[in-house]
Amino acid sequence: MRSRRVDVREWGPLILLTLAVLAGAGLWFAGRRGAADLVWAAVTLVALAPAVWTTLRQLWRRQFGVDVIAVLALAGALLVGEYLAGAVIAVMVATGRALEEYAQRRATRDLRALLERAPRQARRRTPDGRIEVVPLDRVAVGDRLVVGPGDVVPVDGTVEEPATLDESVVTGESQLVTRAAGEQVASGVVNAGAGFGLRAGKSAAESTYAGIVRLAEEATARKAPMVRLADRYAAAFVPFTLVLAGLAWLLSGEFLRAVAVLVVATPCPLLLATPIAIVSGLSRVARRGVLVRDGGSLELLGRARTLLLDKTGTLTAGRPRAAETVVAPGGDRDELLRLAASVEQLSPHVLAAALVRQARDQGLPLAEPAEVTEEPGRGVTGRVDGRLVRVGQLAGEPPEWAHRIRERAELAGRSTVWVSDEHGPLGAILLEDPVRPDARRTVRRLREAGLDRLVMVTGDRPRTAHQVAQTVGVDDVIAQCSPGEKVARVKAESGRAVTVMVGDGVNDAPALAEAHVGVAMGATGATASADVADAVLTVDRLDRLADAVEIARYARRIAVQSATVGMALAVVAMVVAAAGGLPPVAGAFLQEGIDVLVILNALRALGGGLRRREVPPHTRELLDRYAGQHGDIRDVLARLRDTADLVAIRPTAPECVPALREVHRRLVDEVLPHEAAEERQLYPALAGPLGSEEATSTMSRAHVEISRLVDRIGGHLAAHPDGLLRPDEVPDLLAALYGLDAVLRLHLAQEEEDYFSLSPAEDRPDTR
């Protein structure tokens, strides 16, 4: 009920003015024309007083806008006794003001809705098994909470049993999402199923939802007026109008003609079309999971030409992932990962979380560690099944095979976590911060939307930064960039064009504040960056930024188009009025007809503008299904690479051919059926979203090459029933093994970037 009362109050002045004009019309048709004129004159005065005050205040601030024409038209209508014309102008001006104020309020309406539904308390399990209700600020990391049906998840944490969640309010995803036990969940989403347990991973103040709420509070309290597109037309249009009105009066000697010119010159197309188009854009980007602070920011986003992006957390996932497990000669990769993850279960370090997550994704049974100690900066030590295991840095002089691992990690830009026992190193786990699957597609869409310069700024090493930049396709990259240097770079780029900066960390906050439009990755980023940003991505998907840019550019184009057409028609009417062919009353109603035209055109901003095609639900299901299978395919790939290395180093070893037979079996039983099913089901379903069947033709060709290389490996095995390899066939076998490894890795990466990123499913489990 409160929102309804607010609406009546906000739109009350316009409603009262409209009713007064209609009442005057009733009096006029009843023959009481004097009373009608009094009512219309009163309406004109009511509109004139605040318009004069606003105009004087703008002039005092050395601001010059199109409002001055409305003031002169209202005053002129009173002076010449054209009260009906003045009343019609008053209604039009009030409509423009109401819509413009609504645009300002609409910019933060979604944020206020988040604020109103923020949880204030949580249900916490006590050590004796009871459930107590506590204030949200008393929830600590590690607390076990209960989230009931329909409850808002109070803090970021890990679900302890399967949960069905409605994430639409925070992410914009309309479909329910199921989270398995052990998966992370962000605060602010709604429990759409049965109650479940939640292990708090962050305090309330540090959680995702709290950052968005702080943004809402700041944006709601913000009082800066929206930058209006209309005022940029004032410099040329207002002097032209005044000169034309003055000439009409001077040449004809009739002040009425000057008033008629001012009436039809009333800038209602600007005052109406601009806020309607901007409101439409704000509403649409909010539904896409992008919260923009105000219409001025959306308008700037629509004019942007340069985009600067941070790397970590923006173009990359922002959290490490176990990319490869390398073991000592004769070691077991699964056992190495199990030992490391078992020891790291109690460590709060981000690298520990990556190892534990990787082991659980592979279904490895983790043991409870004992005698766990952690030395900051060096690693964790503990006993697993009675065996002393150390995870972290490598102590002492490494063996020869460990040197090769170090070189391999350095070339690939990966971090190395060593796993050792009492006798020495057992192997290493190579960690990486993977490029977001949708990053390259998003960069292409941003270019199509009109951003002609994309720059990556990062504090990371040059080798890693250039690898990411080459992958996503940006124009320039600045590595080892401090926060101060980021600010300087933003200033330099902002001097040449409207600039957007995207980041997620605390170190990005100064650069976000300096850019024309700062965009924070609010779903995963630091609250400091969200607090200073002009827009926040509430969903962890970079492609929503491309959506926002396209919508903003389309909304601004519609606004400019509506304003230009409306003002062109007004200029024609002004010339006719100056010649005496259009009296003020007729001009007022003609102006209203022009207003209706531009409003209808501005409403087009409610749809269209997006280049991305919507993916049908059935196709999304296929994308999610095959994306989920990529984890198993990559496990086969790891075995393939290990087998290729074994053949390259020890081709005469007795375990060589058995390893080949096992990897070939998995290729035939797991990889080839996956590729064949994609060819039959997924690729035909993608023809619509991608535009044609030809879009998947190169990927189909990769399927053929994968099948050919698997057959080639099988041919070598069929020729050797005795289990021995001849030296002369090793080069060809290696070519097939390493070739298949390269082709398959590239094929998976292309599918994930070009196809799987089409599905808007949030936080899909990492498949790479």
TrEMBL record:
This is ATPase, P-type (Transporting), HAD superfamily, subfamily IC/heavy metal translocating P-type ATPase. InterPro entries: ATPase_P-typ_cyto_dom_N, ATPase_P-typ_P_site, ATPase_P-typ_TM_dom_sf, ATPase_P-typ_transduc_dom_A_sf, ATPase_P-type_domA, Cation_Transport_ATPase_IB, HAD-like_sf, HAD_sf. Residues 624-757 form the Hemerythrin-like domain. Its main location: membrane. The chain crosses the membrane at residues 12-31, 38-56, 68-96, 233-252, 258-279, 558-579. GO terms for molecular function: ATP binding; ATP hydrolysis activity; ATPase-coupled monoatomic cation transmembrane transporter activity; cadmium ion transmembrane transporter activity; metal ion binding. SUPFAM superfamilies: Calcium ATPase, transduction domain A (SSF81653), Calcium ATPase, transmembrane domain M (SSF81665), HAD-like (SSF56784). Belongs to the cation transport ATPase (P-type) (TC 3.A.3) family. Type IB subfamily. It is a multi-pass membrane protein. It comes from the Bacteria. It comes from Micromonospora chersina. Residues 118-217 form the P-type ATPase A domain. Keywords: ATP-binding, Cell membrane, Membrane, Metal-binding, Nucleotide-binding, Translocase, Transmembrane, Transmembrane helix. GO terms for cellular component: plasma membrane. It holds the Pfam family E1-E2_ATPase. It is found in: Cell membrane.
